[in-house]
Each structure stands twice: as structure tokens, then as C-alpha cells.
Amino acid sequence: MKTEFVTIEHGGMWGGRLLLFDSLPSTNRWALDNLTRCKNGDVINAAMQTAGKGRFSREWLAPHDRGLTISTILRPPNVKTGLIHATGFVAALAVRETVAACGLQCMMKWPNDVIAGGKKISGILAELETASETIVLGIGLNVNVTSEDLRKAGLEETATSLRICRNSEFAVHDVRKRLIVSLQRAFDKVAHDGFEWVANEWAHHDWLAGHTIEVQGPHGAVSGKYDGMDNTGAICLIDSAGTRQVFTAGDIVRLRKAQ
Ligand code: BTN
Q: Which of the listed residues 33, 59, 125, 180 should we mutate to test ligand 1's pocket, taking the one with most ligand atoms within 8 A of CB?
């Protein structure tokens, strides 16, 4: 670890460390490259990312001190691929709580997006490293990202930030602190109560509820009436033939209110 570029503080999850970088290509990339030096609950934060990774090989925009970008090291016992999905849902619920605590109502969009004012305010990328049985949980939250930042990146139609929605700037370190507390609480809750808690919470804040949706899955696009997230974390829809279809992966488009 090149400690000259990093400040190490207390404040990770479960007594883990908080590693503060001014700039990294990607906090997830750094974590994956330095796993042997990281402990369960460590949180890696960069004030900016120059090559932030999103889902489906997209980029994640994080201008200096305007985006909150963290990667958390999770070493749960018996790590399995299914757990990585659950991790993303739990993290999204924690982000929702954090955004709500900043005075902004927001909702969940399967699998891991948080939506405010109809636009994406946060994204999550959980990556599994099988050899060391580690999940690197990456979270991006648009805190002080401006309309101009989004316009330059061609994202103004689809993305938003706390600053844009609340018309006021936020101290990124305060939002980070709230988020880490919410994350720890959410993971402790699911460890205690099981995935049913996640499914219930999700149903209360589900942006897709009552809508017709399109799932762009591995075998093309399928549309139908959204039928919720089940207790395994899969998304369900009723297609035009009345058949219930279940998806464990895919990109979702919310089309219109269902009849
Ligand atoms: C998405 O496409 O919705 C996922 C975006 C995930 C972005 C975060 S920012 C912190 C971490 N480091 C990365 O490079 N990506 C994730």
C-alpha cells in the first residue's frame, strides 16, 4: 500500500479502517488490487475517480469532492455467488436511508439503483474475488454533482444528485459517515432477520411497483406487468400471455403505469 497517498482513519464498518485517497482510477479496482492488505469492514474512499466502473462496463462519473465513491471490504463466512446479489440490495437500502436522512425522498430500482425525482442518484457495483472469498462493495452517490457535470457527460436526462434535487450543497464527509453507519446497520439487520427483511423494505420503496416494465435480459427484451421482487431477490413480471416470468439478471426500463 502506498501510504504516502492515503490517510488512514477509524470509521470503517465493524471497527474497520477508512482509507482516504484524493484520487484513484477506481476504488473498486484499488481494493481488488490490494485485497491482501485489506480487512473485513475496511472502507476505501476517493475524493475523485478517473476511471470509475459501473455495471455493464459503463463508466461512473465522480468529479472531485462532488461524488461520494466508496468500496467496502466484506468477508462474510461461506461467501457464495448468491450472496453478492443480496449484498447489493442491502447496500441500496442503506443508500436510500442515507439520502432520506439528507431530506430527499427516493426509491429503489432493481437491482441496485436508487432513484430520486425519476432519475438515478446512486449506483452499486459488488464484485466477488473468489480466491480470498471477498466481496468488494462499490457505491457511488451523486452528492454535489452539478447539472453541468451531468450535461457534459450526456447524463442529464437520466442522472441527478442531492445538490440538484435539494438545491443546496452537502458536506461529502458527513454523507459518507451517515452512509457507513446505515450500511453497518443494514448488514447487521439482515444477518439477524434474514433476507425477508430486505424484500419487505424493498417492497415499501419499490420504484417499479404498479408499472409495466421491460427487462433487457440475456435472451432479448421481455415486457410485462411488474410483480415485485421475490424472497430470493429475483424480479418477477406477468407477460402478455399471463405467464409469470422470473429474472435474476438484466437491465430494467420502467415503461408506464400498469392498467
Ligand atoms: C452502476 O453502474 O450503477 C454502478 C456504479 C458503481 C460506482 C461505484 S463508485 C465506487 C466504486 N468504484 C468504482 O469504480 N465503481 C464503484
A: 125
